[in-house]
Amino acid sequence: MMKLQDLFDLAQAVLSGAALSFDDALALTELTEDDIPVLLSLANKIRVHFTGSTVDTCEIVNARSGNCSENCSFCAQSAHHRTQIETYPLLSEQALVTAAKQAEAHGAYRFCIVTSGCGMKNDADFPNITQAIQRIGRETTLQRCCSLGILSDEHVAALKQAGITRYHHNLESSKSFFSQICSTHSYDDRVATVKKVKAAGLEVCSGGIIGLGESWRQRIELAFALKELNVDSVPINVLNPIKGTPVENVARLHPLEILQTFAIFRFILPDKIIRYAGGRERNLGELVPLGFLSGINGMLLGNYLTTSGRGADTDLQTITQLGLSPVGSSL
């Protein structure tokens, strides 16, 4: 069991520029419950030291919903599962532009177009998506992102030319756990897309979901994989079980374990954006603000793909009440 002094020593080493080892990160998962608040405070110190007091904000639009060919166990949009979500084809260009303008009005800094499906291979919607991205660039001041699944080099080049600055593509979990949550494509397929996007000079937003039944070791494996890929933004979702998916009855994580995960990711990735994403309201409730005191410095505002959030105004209020500054907001 790690002693309190050892915890302080690790934090000081990270603050001094040292990289946390895998074994030391794993040791942080074995802290006693009464030492977890100390871990959170030290992670907050690391966040302030490396990234300051700003919070990177973004909003997403579910631009094409459902009927996905992939069988990801957590996803309400998979055609393999019987869920009650709304399904629809790609939204019109005007609808996407309107959603972007609403995000800008809410105070978001970034806007992300998200589509269901494995990727853009032979996808007739791709030209319409790039056209919408270009128009959003002309009509808003937003940083433009998208999440379109697996890409070819040609897709990456076209998105860069259209004005995308960051591409979202989660690894979802560690390589050792991935086969337990998806069998229709591989972990390596996801890694390959991340590498293509980085090679093109674009930023990458890539993280995963905790609470799927993965072990602490596998959670740490994910963090180190993201570190090796040098991703820029790490969204951490907490499973919000959807009825009709294979994980609908998975036990919820304890709130302290969720906050502990945020803190450990900050120790491993001291200078990156670690982003609050889906599931935080259901799993943390009134403890949501504590995430920002546990190393979080990014936030997905408002609603998610198929579930509702607290609303952008409430999210931004949480940020500012903690003395932090949301990027792109006039607050």
TrEMBL record:
Its EC number is 2.8.1.6. Residues 50-280 form the Radical SAM core domain. Pathway: Cofactor biosynthesis; biotin biosynthesis; biotin from 7,8-diaminononanoate: step 2/2. [2Fe-2S] cluster binds at residues 112, 145, 205, 275. CDD domains: Radical_SAM. It comes from the Bacteria. Catalyzes the conversion of dethiobiotin (DTB) to biotin by the insertion of a sulfur atom into dethiobiotin via a radical-based mechanism. This is Biotin synthase. It comes from Propionispora vibrioides.
